[in-house]
Amino acid sequence: MTAAQEVPTPDPVLREDRLDYTPYAHNVSFCRRRAARLVTQWGYPELAGDAALLVSELATNALVHGALSDRLFRVRLALTATTLRIEVSDARGERLPGVREAADDGCYGRGLLIVSRIADDWGVEPHVVGKSVFAELALTARGPEEPTGPHVRRGPVAEA
Rounded to the nearest 5°, which phi and psi values hold at 54? Predict the structure, then answer.
């Protein structure tokens, strides 16, 4: 096997949490608070706000666009040496998410735009039944002195 053919092995998972939730709106706040608490307990309090917001957006999307009344949605957090990965899985694999442009006065349509701005990477993994939407926060890309949260823009800044 040549260097060009080598497949990188993923970092081993150091900590992991997964929990299934019934498809009701009040469970979005439960999984958001759980994510913030766990990320803080795992030693990354500076990422707790971003993780909570990502969980909230992904779980809301699963509830609104991927929920079936008799199927649970799953929230999984996985910590490696370099990444915090947040996954939300639902039963509707045929409904793949995408960033869209929301109307100025619209109440919906900004969730994945928020995810794309906060997460260092995000995407969708289809399954035989359902799908997982994930967002990743890099642990080494920012220091504890760098502010985090929805107000921080990552990437190039547009010139005025």
Answer: -65, -45
Cut 0.85: pTM above it: no
Mean pLDDT, the chain, integer: 78
Architecture of domain 15-94+106-138: 2-Layer Sandwich (3.30)
Q: Which of 84-88, 99-103, 107-111, 130-134 has the highest mean pLDDT?
A: 84-88
Q: How far is CA 62 from CA 8, 88, 128, in A?
A: 30, 7, 17
Domain boundaries, the chain: 15-94+106-138
Task: Tell me the per-residue pLDDT of 45-75, one tens digit each, with 9 for 90 and over.
Answer: 999 999 999 999 999 888 876 666 778 889 9
Q: Under a CB-based contact definition with an 8 Å cutoff, are residues 131 and 65 in contact?
A: no
Give, rounded to a whole angstrom, the gap between the first and last alpha carbons of the chain. 49
